[in-house]
Amino acid sequence: MTNAIQGRLAILLLGLMLGMAPLTVSAQEVAPINVNTADAELLTELPGVGPSRAEAIIEEREANGLFESADDLTRVSGIGETTVAGLEDQVTF
């Protein structure tokens, strides 16, 4: 085989291998995040939680005490029942 053909086959094989590899980790493979101990950076890994909402979670926790359930997260401005429903399996207390 010529070098050009070998190079193309190598690129094709690499592309096939990368196409079959998972690109992201699903939420089921990640350990739940404890919202009572997590810092802002860790909280931003939760779906629907950006930097400002993460800071709001921490401020609420410090001002009014620990969260005991996912429903308690509705104490945080901007977190409603829809967001809570998406977080229930991804958070601990």
UniProtKB/TrEMBL annotation:
- Alphabetically list the UniProt keywords: Signal
For this record, the Gene Ontology CC terms, alphabetical, are:
type II protein secretion system complex
Query: Mind telling me which InterPro entries this protein's record contains?
Result: Competence_ComEA_HhH, Endo/Exo/Phosphatase_dom_1, Hlx-hairpin-Hlx_DNA-bd_motif, RuvA_2-like
Signal peptide positions are 1-27
Segments forming domain Helix-hairpin-helix DNA-binding motif class: 41-60, 71-90
Q: Which Pfam families match?
A: HHH_3
GO terms (molecular function) for this protein are: DNA binding
GO biological process: what's one of them?
Answer: DNA repair
Give the matching NCBIfam families.
Answer: competence protein ComEA helix-hairpin-helix repeat region (TIGR00426)
Protein name, UniProt field: Competence protein ComEA
Q: What is the lineage of its organism?
A: Bacteria, Pseudomonadati, Pseudomonadota, Gammaproteobacteria, Oceanospirillales
